[in-house]
TrEMBL record:
<dbReference type="GO" id="GO:0006508">
    <property type="term" value="P:proteolysis"/>
</dbReference>
<dbReference type="GO" id="GO:0004181">
    <property type="term" value="F:metallocarboxypeptidase activity"/>
</dbReference>
<dbReference type="GO" id="GO:0008270">
    <property type="term" value="F:zinc ion binding"/>
</dbReference>
<protein>
    <submittedName>
        <fullName>Peptidase</fullName>
    </submittedName>
</protein>
<dbReference type="InterPro" id="IPR000834">
    <property type="entry name" value="Peptidase_M14"/>
</dbReference>
<comment type="similarity">
    <text>Belongs to the peptidase M14 family.</text>
</comment>
<feature type="domain" description="Peptidase M14">
    <location>
        <begin position="29"/>
        <end position="305"/>
    </location>
</feature>
């Protein structure tokens, strides 16, 4: 007999319509996208351009999708993309993206065009949830004809700029709730067994295995190490099941997995992972680590165009 490890569904059977509806009914609004994100974006309109790139239309409500752009956009300059909140529950990705714009984005005027989408998944942000309202993970659905509207909208935003991106940093977290809630939910949804793993204590990066750019990744790690600690490998030399290829760095095939960091084809791409549940890091440190990752990435990318 297979033991149930999640309160929805039958072990060994993928969810159907009824199970997804049961899951959706459990989700509750816990914070405000309008107050936490849209208000801060509005406060930036005197210094940056703000572009709407779509709207989520779920039965529970509508969510405008906004991106922040450099004022005085110059087509002769390279483009750098920063994304946060692809997983809505990963708070420092959203807050770090906004903090970067508020404190540092103006420094890059005349050097590059910045495009920042600070909260890709606002429905998930409000519910502190990894998935969207369709029980889909946006960060596995950056694919052609994406069924995830959050992913499809972001891809449509960047498509007109194809071939012009120098850098893309996608801001994420790895949390204790990955093991207690989100990975068990994933296994249950797909009718697969849940195999527990450990949560790394510290910051790390996911590079593209087809375009790893190791010197770039280490430049980002060095910048973040000034703010917070870098995750060590486990006893098997791995982080979340992947071999550590350099200090604080693992690799994924980004495009094959439908991950956000694959959407630009930029020379320099990385996915950050902050551990907000560490006793060694405060929420402010986590936000600052994301900011340091972006500024460190930009410094390297602009110096090695």
């Amino acid at each position: 007999m297979t033991t149930a490890f999640y309160p929805i569904g039958t072990p060994g059977q993928a969810w159907g319509v009824a199970e997804k509806a049961q899951w959706l009914a459990r989700q509750r609004v816990q914070r405000s996208y309008a107050d936490d994100v849209l208000a801060r974006i509005d406060a930036l309109r005197d210094r940056f351009d703000v572009a709407g790139y779509g709207e989520l239309d779920y039965p529970s409500g509508r969510y405008p999708l906004l991106a922040i752009r450099s004022r005085g956009w110059d087509d002769a300059l390279p483009v750098a993309l920063v994304t946060g909140g692809v997983h809505g529950y990963e708070t420092s990705g959203v807050q770090g993206a906004l903090k970067f714009v508020e404190r540092h984005a103006a420094d890059y005027a005349g050097r590059c065009n910045l495009l920042v989408a600070p909260c890709v998944s606002p429905w998930g942000y409000e519910r502190i949830q990894r998935w969207n309202a369709l029980a889909l993970d946006p960060n596995r659905n950056f694919i052609a004809a994406s069924p995830a509207p959050e992913s499809a909208a972001l891809m449509a935003l960047v498509q007109p700029l194809a071939g012009r991106f120098l850098m893309h940093v996608d801001l994420h977290e790895t949390t204790d709730s990955d093991e207690s809630e989100f990975r068990p939910a994933l296994a249950a949804r797909d009718g697969k067994p849940f195999e527990p793993d450990s949560v790394p204590d510290g910051f790390y990066l996911c590079a593209d295995s087809l375009n790893p750019q190791p010197a770039f990744q280490q430049a980002v790690i060095a910048a973040v190490a000034k703010v917070t600690h870098i995750a060590p490998p486990d006893a098997q030399g791995r982080i979340i099941g992947s071999p550590v290829v350099a200090h604080g760095v693992i690799e994924y095939p980004l495009k094959a997995l439908g991950l956000c960091a694959s959407i630009t084809g930029a020379r320099y791409t990385t996915t950050t992972e902050v551990y907000p549940d560490s006793p060694r890091a405060t929420p402010e440190q986590c936000d600052d680590a994301q900011v340091a990752a972006v500024t460190g990435a930009l410094a390297y990318a602009l110096a090695h165009r």
